[in-house]
Amino acid sequence: MALKNKVQSIVVSVWRKNTLLLSSSRTINTFATGFDDRILKSPSLVSLDVPDVWNSSSTDCSESSTHKLASEQPARVIDGKQVAEEIISKVAIEVARMKKTTGEVPGLGAILIGERKDSLKYVHNKIQACEEAGIKFKLTEFSESCTEDEVCDAIMRFNVDPSFHGILVQLPLPQHLNEEKILDVLKLEKDVDGFHPMNMGNLAMRGREPLFIPCTPKGCVELLIRYGVEIMGKKAVVIGRSNIVGLPTSLLLQRHHATVTIVTALTPNPEEITREADILISGVGVPNMVRGNWVKPGAVVVDIGTYPIEDASCEQGYRLIGDVCYEEASRVASLITPVPGGVGPMTVAMLLYNTLESATRKYNFV
């Protein structure tokens, strides 16, 4: 046992040294850029890879004392809007530097189908953010009844246009459209949403680095890091397993060495599982599903879900609420994201970051 513990100590020591070398040199990442550590605090995924060394026994059975009791104080709010503004301002600096150096700017092409209130809001936010950052933006819109061929043709036009370095298809799509077929048309190097099977596969595999990490999971983890939340070794529960939110979020948390459990619509007694989570992330779009009694005292709660409800007092005639019953959960959690103003702005910021990264690769800009 003493020998095993000594081996573990050596492995951890070597890993820590390697992590410092990798994060400073970035040599392991073929597509690493010179601006990543100036904008984001998240390390490269490959730098996080460590060997699994299992300890078959442990004498420490005490409960974690890191969590506050529910009665001490309300949760601190994770201000995604403020963090996103900081990131976008740094992206803007790099875009201006790119323009001065190369004469080029990043370009983002977007496709919007139908008139879903939440999709319209997201696209509006992306247009506004691109303007702030100096990123070229073009929107192609289709009616709800459009055909797959029309959408694929629009994607192909962006694929071959060298002035666009990223392509965004606003999801979800109307039910009559085949999402898989449409997304497969996207050029891999312009898949700034990170949904291409190659990007998702590299996200899942240790030792691999995707060209792009999906924006919402990337934004969630960036928030956790910036707010000092320890991920390694913690129990994380992700509610939902969609290809655009739940699945990549769980994969990214695993790459950061969390112990991840996924709750699906078929999971019996989900509240019993979520109450074990140090980090609870929900992204299913079911309003107020996660109640206060679903949350472990002192847990960190990240609400990705959005659901529009009519509200005549709001300018748009509706307001957004999340999966989490904020009033209840905020009395139990230690940190919590609001809706709106939490993950949403971070998704936009990560989209701009990925678009900048794509243009950087094309122009060999550092």
- Gyration radius (Cα, Å) is 21 Å
Query: Which architecture name of one domain does CATH use?
Result: 3-Layer(aba) Sandwich
CATH fold topology of one domain = Rossmann fold
Put simply, the count of helices is: 12
Alpha carbon gap, first and last residue: 48 Å
> What is the overall shape?
globular
- CATH homologous superfamily placement of one domain: NAD(P)-binding Rossmann-like Domain
The CATH class label of one domain is Alpha Beta
The average pLDDT is: 87
Structural class: alpha/beta
Poorly predicted ranges (pLDDT <50, ≥5 residues)?
A: 3-32, 54-69
The level of helicity is 40-55%
SSE arrangement, N to C? HHEHEHEHEHHHEHEHEEEEHEH
Strand order of the largest sheet: 1-11-8-7-5-6
Count the strands? 11
Report what the structure shows.
This is Methenyltetrahydrofolate cyclohydrolase. It comes from Deinandra increscens subsp. villosa. GO terms for molecular function: methenyltetrahydrofolate cyclohydrolase activity; methylenetetrahydrofolate dehydrogenase (NADP+) activity. By secondary structure, the protein is α/β, with parallel strands linked by helices. It has a domain at 211-346: Rossmann fold. 40% of the residues lie in helices and 13% in strands. The strands form three sheets. It has a six-stranded parallel beta sheet. Strand 5 (235-239), helix 9 and strand 6 (259-263) form a beta-alpha-beta unit. The protein is globular. The model is unreliable at 3-32 and 54-69 (pLDDT under 50).
Question: Which helices and strands appear, and what pairs or packs with what?
Answer:
Layout: H1 2-25, H2 36-39, E1 76-77, H3 80-102, E2 107-113, H4 117-133, E3 136-142, H5 148-160, E4 166-169, H6 179-184, H7 197-204, H8 215-226, E5 235-239, H9 246-255, E6 259-263, H10 270-274, E7 279-282, E8 300-303, E9 307-310, E10 318-321, H11 326-329, E11 335-336, H12 343-363
Parallel strand pairs: 1-11, 2-3, 2-4, 5-6, 5-7, 7-8, 8-11
Antiparallel strand pairs: 9-10
Helix pairs in contact: 3-12, 4-12, 8-9, 8-12
Function: Catalyzes the oxidation of 5,10-methylenetetrahydrofolate to 5,10-methenyltetrahydrofolate and then the hydrolysis of 5,10-methenyltetrahydrofolate to 10-formyltetrahydrofolate.
Subunit structure: Homodimer.
Catalytic activity: (6R)-5,10-methylene-5,6,7,8-tetrahydrofolate + NADP(+) = (6R)-5,10-methenyltetrahydrofolate + NADPH
